[in-house]
Structures are given as C-alpha cells and as structure tokens.
Amino acid sequence: MDAPTQARRYLTPSATSRKEVPAYFQKMARATSLPSDDEEDELTEEPPAVTATDQEKIEWKRRQNTLAARRSRKRKMQNVQRLEETVERLTREREVWKTRALTLKHLLISHGIICPEFRD
C-alpha cells in the first residue's frame, strides 16, 4: 500500500475517456429521479449515422447504456416487489394452516385421540 505509483502514460487517448463529458450528461447528472411506470424511455433514438463522428457514436452508446441500466434497475425493483408480495402471501397462508392444524389437534385431543406432535 505504501509503494510509490507512477502516473499511467498512454500512447493514444482512450476512446471512452470521460474527460469530456457532453452537456447532455451533465444535465442528466443533476436530475436523479427515476422515470415512473407510465413514462417511456425518452431517449430511444436511431443509431448514429455512418458519417457520425466518433464522439457522437460514443455519446449515443452511453445514452443506450444509461437506458439499459435504467431498465435493469426497474426490472430488479419489480422483481423484489414481487418476491416481497409472495413472502407476505405465503406467511399469511402458513398462519392459516397452522391455526387449522392446531384447531384439529385440540379437537382430536378433546375426543381422547392421540395426536402426533408437529413442529412450529
């Protein structure tokens, strides 16, 4: 950890270098709200033309990546919500069956029938 490090020197600049952030992305960084369920992705657009500059292609690719990440986060959030609802439903169902089993157990015991013990 205490070893000295040297700055990296590249022969050519990286094609995806973040040194020049387009103004479009600077505006997006300030707006951190996620789109609602009804809101469609507003950035769906045609791929850049063949004559587009490298910078335009990089910007388009970044926008597409942003949208893909947004969709992925949305799918993940929906999946977590679905799983939470399933857990709640199964917990309620388990309680119902547990109550029924205990009721039947007490009924059997009250009639003098030996009932096996079962775990909670």
UniProtKB/TrEMBL annotation:
Superkingdom of source: Eukaryota
Ranges where the BZIP domain occurs: 55-105
SUPFAM superfamilies: Leucine zipper domain
Keyword Glycosyltransferase: no
The protein's name: BZIP domain-containing protein
Alphabetically ordered keywords of this record: Coiled coil
Region feature (Disordered): 1-54
Compositionally skewed regions (Acidic residues) per UniProt: 36-45
Native source organism of the sequence: Asterophora parasitica
Coiled-coil residues: 73-100
The UniProt record lists the keyword Coiled coil: yes
GO MF term set: DNA-binding transcription factor activity
